[in-house]
Amino acid sequence: MKIRINALAGIALATTAALGLTACGASSTSGSDAAQSAGEITVYNAQHESLTQEWVDAFTAETGIKVTQRQGSDTEMSNQIIQEGQASPADVFLTENSPAMAQVENAGLLADVDQATVDQVPAGFRPSTNKWTGIAARSTVLVYDKNKLSEDQLPTSMLDLAKPEWKGKWAASPSGADFQAIVSALLELKGEDATREWLKGMKENSTAYKGNSTAMKAVNAGEVDAALIYHYYYYGDQAETAENSGNVTPFYFKNEDPGAFVSVSGGGVLKSSKHADDAQAFLKFITGKAGQEVLQQGTSFEYPVGSDVPANEALVPLKDLQAPTVDPAKLNSSKVSELMTEAGLL
């Protein structure tokens, strides 16, 4: 509180009192309280930086709350939050895939999501625990060289890629969080033995590239026949120059196959947040109509999951993907890392 003193110049006592009150007022708004009153939050962001910046700009314009981003990968950010524990400066954590969010949840570091936010996102796109929520989604696809393969030559299931006839014909980016999320879904849907066997076949059959876009580019260049990636790499390239996807077509497995897995990007508020109200407001905003329309109308080509906002018209509608039902809270990134390391893929 700012103290106004109308003291007589010669009264020392009043002057002393005024100085004392002013000093008290200054100390009461220092540190975290000052940050709270200023309306600022820190977001540990593993989502695409450009997408989150669009959300941040729109949120700040509407609320006046400033947002600082710290950028990293899913695994980097989740591990950092766990290492920092209750001392983390993060207020909000955003991911590309849900295993990293489940990892932070399992460490007991997430607050409950406000009910108003939960109500904006259908149950299929958030964990059963409601410790975080879906903010966007991406579908698994097999992109293939349309000059080499016809659709009737494609596998009927993702599991078929482990068969001998696919040796040397497909690619993936096994070191990335995107691919590991796909394996997490396979583990949850089919169990450890089936996942171990599929990874063994993958090691024999596939070529490893660093990054989904690099794997797709290899298909486009004729290096391999197909690659298992997320859909938006194809649609994003098509919307620009199509130089890395001109010879490529995406194939959707559908039929609740593990290869039809839809990965949920997560958003959660840290239990240790000193700006919890503002953090919850940010999460509510990005899952609300304005935030989800950023996905619908922007260039990320990820799927909106909240507030009944439909997907970009270029995309296959979510309801037509026939994705398997997977509780994002049950995706086990630690076990996936163990199994992929055992298979020689990491």
How would you describe this structure to a colleague?
By secondary structure, this protein is of the alpha/beta class. Helix content is 41%, strand content 15%. It has 13 helices and 9 strands. Strands 1, 2, 3, 4, 5, 6, 7, 8 and 9 form a 9-stranded mixed beta sheet that branches. Helix 4 (74-84) runs parallel beside helix 5 (98-106), helix 7 crosses helix 8 (192-205) and helix 7 crosses helix 13 (333-342). The longest helix has 17 residues, at 12-28. It is globular and about 55 Å long.
Q: Evaluate the radius of gyration.
A: 24 Å
**Shape, please?**
globular
Helix percent reads: 40-55%
Assign the structural class, choosing from mainly alpha, mainly beta, alpha/beta, alpha+beta, or little secondary structure.
alpha/beta
Count of helical regions: 13
- State the order of secondary-structure elements, H for helix, E for strand: HHEHEHEHHEEHHEHEHEEHHH
Mean pLDDT: 90
Note poorly predicted spans.
1-37
**How can the largest sheet be summarized?**
9 strands, mixed
Beta-strand content estimate: 5-15%
Per DSSP E runs of 2 or more residues, the count of β-strands stands at: 9
> What distance lies between the first and last C-alpha atoms, to the nearest angstrom?
57 Å
